[in-house]
Specification:
The complex is a heterodimer of chains A (212) and B (244). With 212 residues, chain A is an alpha/beta fold. Chain A contains nine helices and five strands, in the order ααααβαβαβαβαβα. In chain B, helix 1 packs across helix 6 and helix 3 packs across helix 7. Chain B starts with a strand and ends with a helix. Chain B is an alpha+beta fold and 244 residues long. Classes of the chains: A alpha/beta (212), B alpha+beta (244). The structure holds CO-5-methoxybenzimidazolylcobamide. CO-5-methoxybenzimidazolylcobamide sits at the interface of chains A and B.
Chain lengths: 212, 244
């Protein structure tokens, strides 16, 4: 088995120590970091994502794999920056103002990182202006918003309206999700996508940035 | 009567099956070491970081009618609107397991302890639900002691944000009950802080009053339909009989 394949396999079993060791080994063999990322880490995480969607594995397995993915990314990231290799699109994520729920948002962020996106997590209780400012500063392609209560869902609409006002709608795409959020609500407020759960959110963000 | 109740941790300790369910793990399935270890650790951390406490206050029907109406944002027809009018006794309640456990969960996520963080979040959600169950039982025991419950009496809880009772109902509930005394505050968005808190009304009466069909217009949007299990459970065991 080649080293990059070993990375993917170790990642799928959540063995972060082996992922870290094989990533170092691959670099020693002069395998380009981009290839290690795509064929090792992301490809392993894609398999994990698919198995999760079809209920072959459970959430803890996905989270272990994500931790392993981060172990590999920690080694690769400085090299990307050093060599000026552009990473994936950036996603700004947060739970909207008034909402302190963040487990669902965390899971979506973890899965997006696993899919290779650069994720800026603003935490919870995030004001609409903060989403937009951060997205502008970091040249993000997507703003991802989570709400667990009907009373905080209107904040999502405010973000979409602000983007429209700043003529950024279309340039910065939006995806929304959370227990009371529906596809119909996403359409109603003009959000670009809706994610039923973390796995579907990743698919939707990939579609938004044309990475399907 | 209004009472603040410190709840012993062992009474609300989350059961492993319930925690696993929050992680999407099917009960009865063999769990790997990857799941078992963090599961055990999460329950240990729960016992270290959870501080279960509740407040309970009797409320006469006319006053509850006012609390229930809240800001007038409820759905026009709701199961609770029918049920509370048939109640033999009503009490408002709020419970929490405190802020410390939520801070621990955030810390774990920040340190990339993702499995344990998620598992502890699940354990905390189960634990606060158990805390509300404890208060439900406590109210029934109180009624029995007062001679105000019969073997046909059942106590069930209903919360703002469920089954057509608008979240804004919590404002009046808070004014009446003052859960601030046990460290719970209400944000403008009607979210309670600490996050792992539950508020609502306890309704005591003949079991049958709690039965309703899940065919209200808003039921179509409900993702859990957990009311079915709750109603079913009422007819499976008599908590009253267990006590006398
Ligand atoms: C950007 O793109 C995306 C895409 C997808 C996205 C996304 C963003 N963000 C999330 N997703 C999606 O992907 C994630 C992963 O798959 C998912 O994220 P979630 O965050 O949904 O999922 C988590 C991983 C696990 N899920 C959860 O943690 C929430 C599950 C449900 C059952 C739930 C739970 C467990 C709890 N709750 Co409560 N709770 C409910 C929930 C009903 C439901 N079916 O979801 C909900 C959210 N709660 C509700 C209510 C009303 C309340 N809760 C309360 C309390 C609680 C518990 C403490 C018992 C417990 C813990 C809550 C917590 N998260 O810490 C109260 C509020 C607490 C507070 N602090 O104020 C209280 C107000 C009840 C009360 N009066 O006491 C309802 C809100 C309804 C509304 N009208 O807004 C509710 C929808 C239940 C219902 N009625 O069906 C998806 O939603």
């Amino acid at each position: 088995m080649d080293t990059v394949h070993n990375i993917s396999v170790s990642l799928q079993s959540g063995d972060y120590e082996r992922v870290s060791a094989f990533t170092k080994q691959a670099l020693e063999k002069n395998i380009p970091p981009k290839e290690i990322l795509d064929r090792g880490l992301i490809s392993g995480m894609n398999i994990v994502g698919e198995k999760y969607k079809t209920h072959e594995i459970f959430l803890p397995d996905v989270l272990l794999a994500a931790k392993a993915m981060y172990a590999g990314m920690d080694i690769l990231k400085p090299l990307f920056i050093e060599e000026g290799i552009p990473t994936m699109s950036t996603v700004v994520i947060g739970s909207v103002q008034g909402d302190l729920h963040d487990i669902g948002k965390n899971l979506v962020g973890i899965m997006l990182k696993g899919a290779g996106f650069e994720v800026i997590d603003l935490g919870n209780n995030v004001a609409p202006e903060k989403f937009i400012e951060t997205a502008k500063t970091h040249h993000a392609s997507v703003i991802a918003m989570s709400a667990l209560l009907t009373t905080t869902m209107p904040v999502m609409k405010r973000v979409v309206e602000l983007l429209r006002r700043e003529r950024l709608k279309g340039k910065i795409k939006t995806i929304i999700g959370g227990a009371p959020v529906t596809e119909a609500f996403a359409r109603e407020i003009g959000a670009d996508a809706y994610g039923y759960d973390s796995a579907h959110a990743v698919d939707a963000v990939k579609r938004l940035v044309g990475r399907t | 009567m209004r009472e603040i109740i410190e709840i012993p941790l062992d009474k609300v300790k989350p059961h492993r099956t319930d925690v696993l369910r929050t992680q999407g793990v099917t009960p009865g399935k063999d769990t790997s070491h990857n799941v078992e270890k963090p599961l055990r650790k999460a329950i240990e951390l729960f016992l270290e970081y959870a501080h279960p406490v509740g407040v309970l206050g009797d409320i006469p029907l006319p006053q509850f009618e006012d609390v229930y109406k809240g800001d007038g944002k409820n759905e026009t027809s709701t199961p609770l609107d029918e049920i509370f009018k048939k109640a033999e006794a009503l009490a408002l309640f709020a419970v929490t397991i405190g802020e410390e456990i939520s801070q621990k969960i955030s810390q774990l996520f920040k340190k990339n302890e993702l499995v344990l963080g998620s598992m502890l979040d699940g354990a905390a959600s189960v634990g606060v639900d158990n805390t509300a169950d404890f208060i439900e039982n406590h109210f029934l025991t109180m009624l029995i002691k007062r001679g105000a419950a019969t073997s046909a009496t059942a106590v069930l809880r209903y919360s703002p944000g469920y089954c057509g009772w608008h979240m804004s109902g919590q404002k009046k509930l808070f004014t009446y009950l003052k859960p601030e005394d046990i460290g719970i505050s209400l944000l403008d968005s009607f979210l309670m802080r600490p996050l792992k808190s539950i508020s609502g009304v306890l309704i005591a009466g003949p079991r049958e009053i709690h039965v309703f069909e899940d065919s209200y217009p808003f039921c179509a949007e409900c993702k859990t339909h957990s009311c079915r299990e709750r109603i079913e459970a009422l007819f499976k065991e008599s908590r009253y009989n267990n006590r006398v």
